[in-house]
Amino acid sequence: MIEHRFVSCGERRVMVRCAGSGPPVVLLHESPRSSAAFIPMIEALAARFTVIAPDTPGYGGSDPLPLHRPQIADYADALKEVVDALGLERIALFGRHTGAAIAIEFANLYPERVSGFVLDGCPAFTPEEMEELVASYLPPFRPVWDGSHVAWLWSRVRDQLTFFPWNRQGPASRLAIDMPRPSVLNRIATDLLLAGDGYSVAYKAAFRYDGASAAAAARVPAHYMATETDVLLSHLDRLPNLPANARIHRVTDAERVATVGDLLGACADGLTPAPAPPEDTGARRFVQIGGASLMVRQWGDDGGRPLLLVADLPGSTQGLGPMATQLARERRVIAIDPPGHGLSSPAPPGTADGGIDLVARSAAALGLEQFDVAGINVGACWAAHVAGRLGADCAHLVLIDPPPDPAAHAECLPATALAPVWSGSHLLTAWHLARESLLCRPWFVPTTATRMPVEIGLDVDLLHQRFVDTVIAGAALPEALRAVCAQPWPALLGPLAGRVAIVTGEGMPDAQEQAALAASAPAPVTRAVPDARGYASAILAAAERK
């Protein structure tokens, strides 16, 4: 089982995927990917090693380096912080492309910490290639209202696997490789979305890196490999001055994972087994529940009764910052990404309730006893289900703009709507779903009668965050919607009578339907909010009732 964890490196948090036991090997990914690129390899190597795959700073779930133009040496120093924090004395290293540059630089700076390394595609660009790639390969990536950046993103991913350089389309640049499945393309696109406009930072550092000189200077056992379809295969011929303990390997794609395992086995021979990782603590952390790693964010101190805040669906803890910051002035706020949303891993196969039970069980794992639960829009339905599982541990339940008929959301989002397809149309579906959900309620009825009173949908950055959340959720979103629709939220409130409050915004298009449902629910308190700034105070007032 692969676990997600955060490692504290001073003020920065670094996300890692880890699995297995035995001698430690560290896997460093290419740009603009995250350690998610290594999931099949982690699973294959975990039977022999403790496998640790960090997200490069600024990618996946890791904070960026606080530097204007970091170089590969800066990323190597950042890797040392991760290795130190995990208590690893010596490691075997594997790196691919950008990760290969970081690996060899780390080995050259800290040879006493490395038993050997395996590089899959070592960058060894000429000065002319460096100049061209830095200048033209990495255009800015910024969201725009019309969604044209979404079409560009998908085309960029496909072109990168069709041509090298991707922006020099022509017969001379055509790659002799098969186009991966849409699910693989979607994972690459998702990683680029997570990195955002910062996707180019480590890329540029790798393009500027003199890999040939670094390889000539390496003193630890080294293996340089590339597959027959790697765009850096020819770079193996640019490494003529290697030390005696270095080897070059040309392998097929089918041989790649097995070769990596065997070479890392030789490098890791004699290494001390990795110690248990330190406890994952801090304002952002993961909790391990039922085979899933659930992402947790916290705002505020430990005083008072905590408030468990559930984001709208689609959504994640990332988008709760503004509201949670206001709430945290008086209460400790905790939020959890449902399985398959945000940075949380998917629910294990066979999970029947979309992960509701996993979220409810995580409260005990976090040491919560008496606390309040609040949820936003469709997330309010999720919160009602979670509160029902918690029973007496839930002091108050606050439903914020709950949809009158959550089942309609599931019916209007077929399970296949967000499944990756070769044309990338699923991304445009996600973009327009996100856009309409900020403009209308319900999002699938875009009329003047359903128009939201606050034009938050015109905030392109907020819209883009919701789009990213939707893309990440993918197939988990229909599952989550079906789970909360299994029983309407008013029917869940009986055991919570006297502990329920409903907060609604004035002028919401479904306010009358909400009021009618609230009236039929057992003893709720309703509070109308005149504008967006009043939500936090209304939630706190509702959760303070005795």
Q: In words, what does this structure look like?
A:
The protein has about 550 residues and is α/β, with parallel strands linked by helices. It folds into two domains: about 5-140 and about 200-270, Alpha/Beta hydrolase fold, catalytic domain (Rossmann fold, 3-Layer(aba) Sandwich), CATH 3.40.50.1820; about 285-405 and about 485-545, Alpha/Beta hydrolase fold, catalytic domain (Rossmann fold). It is built from 18 helices and 16 strands. It has helices at about 40-45, 70-85, 100-110, 125-135, 150-160, 180-195, 200-205, 210-215, 255-270, 320-325, 355-365, 380-390, 405-410, 425-440, 460-475, 475-485, 510-520, 535-545; strands at about 5-10, 10-20, 25-30, 50-55, 90-95, 115-120, 220-225, 245-250, 285-290, 290-300, 305-310, 335, 370-375, 395-400, 500-505, 525-530. The protein has an eight-stranded mixed sheet with strand order 1-2-4-3-5-6-7-8, sandwiched between helices. Helix 10 crosses helix 18 (about 535-545), helix 11 (about 355-365) crosses helix 12 and helix 14 (about 425-440) crosses helix 15 (about 460-475). The longest helix has 15 residues, at about 425-440. The model has no long low-confidence stretch (mean pLDDT about 90).
Q: Layout of SSEs?
A:
Layout: E1 3-9, E2 12-20, E3 24-28, H1 39-45, E4 50-54, H2 72-85, E5 91-96, H3 98-109, E6 114-120, H4 127-136, H5 148-160, H6 182-195, H7 200-207, H8 211-217, E7 222-227, E8 246-251, H9 256-268, E9 284-289, E10 292-299, E11 307-310, H10 321-327, E12 333-336, H11 356-365, E13 371-376, H12 378-390, E14 394-400, H13 406-411, H14 425-439, H15 460-473, H16 476-485, E15 500-505, H17 511-520, E16 525-529, H18 535-543
Parallel strand pairs: 3-4, 3-5, 5-6, 6-7, 7-8, 11-12, 11-13, 13-14, 14-15, 15-16
Antiparallel strand pairs: 1-2, 2-4, 9-10, 10-12
